[in-house]
Amino acid sequence: MKVYIFKRLATIIPMSLLVVSVTWGLIRIAPGNFYLSEKKLPAAIEQNIKKKYGLESSLVEQYLMMLGNMTCRVSDSGDSEGAGLKIAIGSRTLRCFDFGYSLKYEGQSVNEILSRHLPYSAVIGVLAFLIALVGGVSLGAVAATRKDSRVDRYLMSLSMIGISVPTFVLAPVLVLVFSFGLYWLPPARWGGMEHLVLPVLSLSAVYLAYIARLTRTGLIEVLKSDYIRTARAKGLSEARVVVGHALKAGILPVVSFSGPAIAGLLAGSVVIERIFAIPGLGNIFVQSVLNRDEPLTLGIVAFVSIVILVCNLVVDIVYALIDPRIRFGER
Length: 331
Description:
mainly alpha
């Protein structure tokens, strides 16, 4: 397992570089650039902008410069250039993921912008996932133990509605009901705990529905196993059979689903953040694309790709912990 984890960790940087390289190529293929406006700039000003941001160099030179900024290198601690991840090593500094400064937000580094907007998305994402996990597993377990009953059909119908209704439809409906109808909760902005209720509920609904269906499917198969029949023959209660024996193996599909789900939630939901005016990572990512802010776009893409790779690795480790039959890296 240790060898497997080390190999997976070693692939994170190359895979992130590949994703960022493809993104960089797509940005360069797209027409236009960040300094274009309705009024054409004078040739002298345009030339100065290109010189300032290194756009006079060839595409190959610009690409190699971008890769050089992403890779880790050691520099003097007193070196003030660069704005990436910095780790002190004695009198020197290990500098990684230096995407430089934003083209739109002058004087602000990409890492500063990420650190400022990430907490908003992280808080909403973690709360939404916890609600979806607890609620989805609970509802799925109830439906599985009452297979083909009225309760099962009712819960699965609700879950299908949760999957089918888009977030951009559910969120405004919740705002209309609880903010403009009942006046219980604020409709938007970031503030106290009451401001989190509607965004978290809107974001968690679809994940809760998916987890409920995955839990039901996994538990139904496990409840047919011989060791479950043995546990029931010993006189154990149904609740103890499900929670103590069946649930551990039944939630394996949920574990697989959780990796990409957590990564997506941490990266921010564009729809939720736009509807509720939350300055999260998803919102700033859309703005960076619209502004053709290349350094900021590449920084967010690199962060999201790393989060996805790490979450998938964690999912594999949890798989092995839950099911002892799984042995990664062993023949």
